[in-house]
Design goal:
Layout: H1 2-75, H2 77-94, H3 96-109
Length: 110
Amino acid sequence: MNNELKTMLESIIQEALKPIKEEMQTIKGEVQTLKGDMQTIKDEVQTLKGDMQTIKGEVQTIKEDMQTIKFQLDEKPEVTKAVIHRQEETDAKLVPFPLMFISCTEKLTI
């Protein structure tokens, strides 16, 4: 009788523990998924850090190039003035072009 009672109690306990065991398995799976997601995020952060370093290097290069250009412009103001003057002349020649183009287009549509 004692043995039967023991067996019956063990059976009842096992049945009562089934939902808990299933829930634990579900939680274990979710934890594994979260671990994978965390690793993915870590990898992406590492990639972003590398990209940021690359961008910092490029920005530094641009700053150095700008400094070189500024130095060259400051060093030779007459060249800078000549380039600006030439650009203004070019711009002045381009202004009539849109007007000429519009008048040609109007003639074509008539």
